[in-house]
Each structure stands twice: as C-alpha cells, then as structure tokens.
C-alpha cells in the first residue's frame, strides 16, 4: 500500500474555548521544529485556517486525501468519510478504520445519528448530557 502522509496544523482561527475552558491560541513551541522535520523527510504539511481536524475532514470529503489518521473522533462530526485511529494506547500497531459506508450501513448511523451521539456524549466543544 502506497502511503504519502500530509500533515495539517491548527491555524489562527482555531476556537479559543473548548468545553468552556480557554485553550492556548499560540502554536506549540515545537511546531516549527516538527514542520522542518516533516519537510526534511519529504512530506508535505500546511496550516489550517482553524481546527486541523476540520481541515482534514474537508480534504477527505473532497477526495484530496483518502483517510484521516486521528485519535480525535471529531473528524466524523466534521464530515470525514474515512477515519483511522489507534485501537488503544498500549497497542500502537493495531488500528481501527471507520468509513462512512460502514457506519451508515453496518451500524445504521447516519450523519444525524452521529451528531446526536456527539451531543449526548460530549466532546471538545460541549460537556454532553
């Protein structure tokens, strides 16, 4: 399987609050070092206007990238059609793949159903019920 990783960093329009708490608006102090390392290894990266997860989901929706690798399930709420995440912290080589088709036809979850689950369980932007 041919893989070309593309990295996306949070941008300046990232929300200032998550779950009612102030988040850092300045980039992480290692961001520039990571960007230089990514470029040195021949990979590409760019800065999103806001949330990196939202940008990646948009790229996935438009077919520019095949999948989004993230431990954050927000990518599904942002509309990604294929997400990859680690199964758990202990086994980094075991991955779970979520596709829009499998969620809709296998688990019978529509985008509206996913939204309801997100609202009920909470996440980065709300505490849930």
UniProtKB/TrEMBL annotation:
InterPro entries: PIN-like_dom_sf (IPR029060), XPG-I_dom (IPR006086), XPG/Rad2 (IPR006084). GO terms for biological process: DNA damage response. GO terms for molecular function: 5'-flap endonuclease activity. Residues 39-103 form the XPG-I domain. Pfam families: XPG_I. PANTHER family: ENDONUCLEASE, PUTATIVE (AFU_ORTHOLOGUE AFUA_3G13260)-RELATED (PTHR11081:SF75), FLAP ENDONUCLEASE FAMILY MEMBER (PTHR11081). This is XPG-I domain-containing protein. It comes from Scleroderma citrinum Foug A.
